[in-house]
């Protein structure tokens, strides 16, 4: 099993999304957090299972929410680096920047 690290950009996106959901529904917020955590656990167990979308970036959709977790695999330190928790309605040209 791998460890994971969330880069500042991804952390900011995650916090902004939690804030957005919290303004609408406590239940939706809790379910979003659970879905993100469940997806991160799946990634740490089998990081190569998910789509290698671009160069060394892998991505996996978060169930029931319009987000994708974009990550790289740092084999030498056994770590998944989450670079973005990307809302699918955003400009795709900025997805990997």
Descriptive notes:
This protein has about 100 residues and is α+β, with helices and mostly antiparallel strands. The protein has one domain: YaeB-like fold. Helices cover about 35% and strands about 30% of the residues. The protein is built from 2 helices and 5 strands. The chain has helices at about 10-20, 25-45; strands at about 5, 50-55, 55-60, 65-75, 80-85. It has a 5-stranded mixed β-sheet with strand order 1-5-4-3-2. The longest helix has 20 residues, at about 25-45. The protein is globular and about 40 Å long. The termini are far apart.
Q: List the total number of helices.
A: 2
Spans of at least 5 consecutive residues whose pLDDT stays below 50 are none
Number of strands: 5
What is the level 1 CATH name? Alpha Beta
The CATH homologous superfamily is termed: RelE-like
CATH architecture: 2-Layer Sandwich
Largest β-sheet summary: 5 strands, mixed
- Given helix and strand content, the structural type is alpha+beta
Summarize the structure.
The chain has 97 residues and is α+β, with helices and mostly antiparallel strands. The protein has helices spanning 8-22, 26-45; strands at residues 3-6, 51-54, 57-61, 67-74, 79-87.
